[in-house]
Amino acid sequence: xxxxxxxxxxxxxxxxxxxxxxxxxxxxxxxxxxxxxxxxxxxxxxxxxxxxxxxxxxxxxxxxxxxxxxxxxxxxxxxxxx
Length: 82
Description:
The chain is an alpha+beta fold. About 40% of the residues lie in helices and about 15% in strands. The chain is built from 3 helices and 3 strands, in the order H-E-E-H-H-E.
């Protein structure tokens, strides 16, 4: 399923990249490369989830900060919803 045009929150929780053959409970896992992580982090910031420099006090902040950190460090993320 194409992930282009999805909101930041859907992309953060459902992934944007390739599926991996591991069932987390609500479907297969996914990978997100550093470029996609940056797009997700930017989308979450635009949606008001969290922005760099803001204190992390909520789970939504932690999710957005996680994707920003992955992007800034050039890391690929493997994720899924359990």
